[in-house]
């Protein structure tokens, strides 16, 4: 009897080890698709175009194709009301097991937050984020230890990659299959917002100080209300407030960001023109600007207003808050697509 019991335990142990090994060998990916990206008020005040759900659905089909070609066999998806992933799920149901996460709300910021938290706890190989700078900012806050690939489907897209879904899927799959993953992903810096010494929030691309006292419609689309700008990321093809930074500096080092103090004096000699929204070029009057380093704390001069993070007003403040900005080198862990596809 004791022998049978011991044999039974031995068999259970073998099954447990096999299941553990199987789970370890699964190639798992998370996908967050913001159903609201590419649809904000900037469609009314600039020439930004609406990103339809059909486009996102097509990109998901292409993404599944790329992932499937590399042996990815399980995907965890953020839910949405329009079920944008339905066509991709059905087409690749025989090769990829798709799990739609459960959240309390649909098509809301809380949906992204809940999904990102769940994906973080699942310890996935990678999470792919469809949206603009704002979507990437929100999701990456809860995925700090998970490699991510942000894909552009928003308005301002400095942080996300402008990449075809098929190629993105191949790149993610190759990353998962690589033996030295640390060679193909890296930390990107971000800008942290503090009230006194208390951390409040972060931005991936820029922090814009406005004199608008309330959050309201969130998007900032003209310079009239802007007094200060902090820029963390620039690109030669960038649109948005970061394009002002590219006019001043062509390259930013990994430990640098730009601070700009905007002038209200129309006669100032320090002026330039930048595309701060699609189809909208504005005159930028600059009082002064400088580069600042990772160990510097830059205090905001304005006594009250709102702070826009990556193009959206998020934080109301007044002089009692004593707001400041600091570079944080421990930002999101991002896939280096060029390096992955070059090997």
List keywords for this structure.
single chain; alpha+beta; Rossmann fold; Tumour Suppressor Smad4; 2 domains; 29% helix; 30% strand
Strand order of the largest sheet: 12-13-11-10-9-15-16
State the name of the first-level CATH class of the largest domain: Alpha Beta
SSE order = HEHHEHEHEHEHEEEEEHEEEEEEEEH
Oligomer: single chain
- Biggest beta sheet summary: 7 strands, antiparallel
- Number of continuous helical runs: 9
Average pLDDT, to the nearest integer? Answer: 89
Look at the helices and sheets and give the structural class. alpha+beta
| 3D shape | elongated
Contiguous low-pLDDT stretches (5 residues minimum) are: 12-24
Q: Into which percentage range does the β-strand content fall?
A: 25-35%
Report on the architecture of this protein:
The chain has 343 residues and is an alpha+beta fold. It folds into two domains: 25-177, Nitrogenase molybdenum iron protein domain (Rossmann fold); 190-328, Sandwich (Tumour Suppressor Smad4), CATH 2.60.200. It is 29% helix and 30% strand. The longest helix is centred in the first third of the chain and has 24 residues, at 2-25.
């Amino acid at each position: 009897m004791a022998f049978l019991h011991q044999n039974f335990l031995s068999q259970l142990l073998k099954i447990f080890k096999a299941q553990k090994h199987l789970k370890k060998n699964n190639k798992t990916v998370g996908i967050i698709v913001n159903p609201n990206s590419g649809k904000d008020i900037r469609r009314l005040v600039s020439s930004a175009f609406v990103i339809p759900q059909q486009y996102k659905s097509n990109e998901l089909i292409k993404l599944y194709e790329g992932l499937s070609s590399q042996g990815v066999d399980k995907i965890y998806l953020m839910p949405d009301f329009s079920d944008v992933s339905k066509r991709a799920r059905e087409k690749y149901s025989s090769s990829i097991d798709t799990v739609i996460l459960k959240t309390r709300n649909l098509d809301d910021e809380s949906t992204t937050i809940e999904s990102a938290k769940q994906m973080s706890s699942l310890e996935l190989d990678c999470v792919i984020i469809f949206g603009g700078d704002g979507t990437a900012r929100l999701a990456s806050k809860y995925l700090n230890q998970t490699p991510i690939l942000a894909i552009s489907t928003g308005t301002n897209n400095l942080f996300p990659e402008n990449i075809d879904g098929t190629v993105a899927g191949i790149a993610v799959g190759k990353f998962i299959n690589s033996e030295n993953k640390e060679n193909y992903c890296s930390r990107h810096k971000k800008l942290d917002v503090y009230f006194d010494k208390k951390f409040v929030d972060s931005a991936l691309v820029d922090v814009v100080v406005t004199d608008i006292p309330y959050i309201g419609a969130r998007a900032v689309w003209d310079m009239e209300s802007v007094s200060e700008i902090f820029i963390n990321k620039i690109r030669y093809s960038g649109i948005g407030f970061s394009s002002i930074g590219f006019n001043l500096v062509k390259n930013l080092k990994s430990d640098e960001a730009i601070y700009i103090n905007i002038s209200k004096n129309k006669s100032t000699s320090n002026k330039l023109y930048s595309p701060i929204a699609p189809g909208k070029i504005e005159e930028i009057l600059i009082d002064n600007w400088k580069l600042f380093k990772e160990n510097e704390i830059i205090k905001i001069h304005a006594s009250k207003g709102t702070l826009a993070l990556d193009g959206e007003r998020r934080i109301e403040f007044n002089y009692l808050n004593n707001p400041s900005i600091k570079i944080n080198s421990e930002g999101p862990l991002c896939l280096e697509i060029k390096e992955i596809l070059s090997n």
